Amino acid sequence: MPGYSTRNLLLNVGGHPWHLRVLSDTQQYADPDGHGERLGISSAQWSLFGQVWPSGQRLAQAMQDFDVAGKRILELGCGIGLASLVLQRRGASVVASDIHPLADAFLAYNSALNALPAVHYRQLAWDVPLETLGRFDLIIGSDLLYERGQPERLGAVIERHALPGAEVLLTDPGRGHGARFSKLLAAQGFALEASRSSVDGEDDDTSGGHVLHYRRAVLPA
Q1: Which CATH number belongs to the domain containing residue 91 in this structure?
Q2: What is the count of structural domains for the chain?
Q3: Domain annotation covers residue 221
Q4: What is the pLDDT of residue 209?
Q5: Partner of 3 for a Cys bridge, out of 30, 41, 130, 202, CB 3.0 to 4.6 A?
Q6: Is 206 among the domain residues?
């Protein structure tokens, strides 16, 4: 037994069914060797990667129709990785990343569950440069600005891994750190286009949060 329990979930994204293995609930926790703790993942945070949150569904929906032709794409904080799976099904060049020690295994399992090749995955700590990761045309993520200090850390990752003409697309439920993040990206030459988005099957767009789409307005020197 792995020390945690899972359940199977069926979701619809853009008219396509997705079968996913997720953690049974947010009370699951299993870190017998202390690996997660050494990575800075507390017991309260440990299970969060293993759920599909509304922001993650919105990001997956956005990727269903986004122009990805010829683009190298990086998903940050992928968790279960639904958006990366959508991109994999579309034949996009995508790399999923997360800090959680189980994210890779869940992503590989869910790829197979949906008859897809495994999504390329890299474990990525935002405060530790990973030169071999390279640079990307599009960087995506969902609900990444969840605590103070995240705008600076995320901004640094984007600065390291965004190509000069890159785009950044985040789905954000509005936790109060978006303005700071936008200011940091503006200093990198990015301009923001913001919109609201709801999850499939929900008519009330108050559940949708914001889609933050940044384009490089001024190329870096």
Answers
A1: 3.40.50.150
A2: 1
A3: no
A4: 76
A5: 30
A6: yes
CB pairs under 8 A, 24+ apart, for 186-190?
Answer: 188/155, 188/158, 188/159, 188/162, 188/216, 188/220, 189/216, 189/217, 189/218, 189/219, 189/220, 190/214, 190/215, 190/216, 190/217
Does any domain span residue 1? no
pLDDT(9) > 90: yes
Provide the residue range defining the domain that includes 26. 6-216
**What pLDDT, in 10s, does the model give residues 193-219?**
876 655 554 544 444 578 999 999 766
